[in-house]
Amino acid sequence: MTAPRRLLIILSLLLGLTACERNNYTTWICKNVAGEKSTMIIKKAQMQFQDREFDYCGSLGPNSYFDLKCLLLIQDASKRFTPSTGQLISDGNEYQCNALLKKSIP
């Protein structure tokens, strides 16, 4: 294999690995039943909601669960989010969320 070809392969692999390091996040606007708005950001394995950060605890079916400290039974987490419908249940309160922005940053 020639040196230029070897260099091209190495550069291609490095670029591919760099793309994997991008930080994906989605910004959502959520309204409760009273019409009050809150911003939610899902970034990697964390949810930012109402000025707090919650860890991703896992998923069951279409639901993703988040909490300050994950419990043994993930369905007991304080936050249940269904991305396909935008429904968020936070400490027993229901919110309807709509995605505003999905972005990748290096």
Automatic annotation (TrEMBL):
This is Lipoprotein.
